[in-house]
Amino acid sequence: MKKIIALLGVIVVLGVVGFGVHSVSHSQKKESNTIVIGSQGSDFQIWQYIAKSEEAKKAGLTIEVKQITDGVQLNKATADGSVDVNAFQSYAYFSAYNQQNSEKKLAALGTTYLEPLGIYSDKYDSIEAIPDGATIAIANNPANTARGLLLLQKAGLITLSDDFDALSGVEEITKNPKNLVFKQIDDTTGPRVLKSVDAVLISNTVALDGDLNVLKDSLFHEEVNQTTKNNINILATAEENKDNASFKKLVKLYHNKTIQKYISKEFGGTKIEVDKPLSYLEK
């Protein structure tokens, strides 16, 4: 009996100690002023630079940057709070995620930039020079297919149906005066197929990896206007954190002149700054 009582005493003490450790750990996490930003690719590089910058210190922000390469998982990590804010996605991607995850939605904090999608060619030096029957390589994933077709329409090469939406494909082309032939490709291979097709649509991130500058090397590219508002990148957080004052400071920090000077130089001006109110996206 004495042994049993002693054993129970040890268990109670360990339980109290364990509870205390858990309480302290939880309290420390709750009181931490560090903002965890989840990102990927070139955005990860940008936020690593921002986290170490004097501008972040002056703003009173302590930032930790985590790299999560899967966009859906990054959004889920943000929604469940293991990441405070994420920096990687367009407004269109964000909207689609919220539609598919209505129980744990994200909220936009502010706009950052537009990376223009471009039409490139190794064979022709203008849109007008693209011949009848030309083969155009276009992304094989729905969001980028639709974005590419909208750009081709803006360039005057095709006309799309009135029902065209963010997930529409080539079946929604109503006019194709040059009888263009569309070849769907993995959009990360764009620079590699330049020589084998007449023209190819390449996202800016992929273009940069292929030593292409959309502003200098493309025949035609997106510009910042209402037709491209869904392609503007944003900072996002869990819906319950949308009014967090520290998180909102990140938007202002991103648009700091010194930070923008670094981004422009590092990426050849291809991350076009968009400092607009959220109402601009919601119109």
Automatic annotation (TrEMBL):
Record membrane topology: Lipid-anchor
Primary localization class, coarse: membrane
Coiled coil location: none
Keywords: Lipoprotein, Membrane, Palmitate, Signal
Top-level taxon in the UniProt lineage: Bacteria
Compartments, record wording: Membrane
GO cellular component: membrane
Parts of the chain that traverse the membrane: none
Family classification: Belongs to the nlpA lipoprotein family.
Record-given protein name: Lipoprotein
Source organism (scientific name): Enterococcus hermanniensis
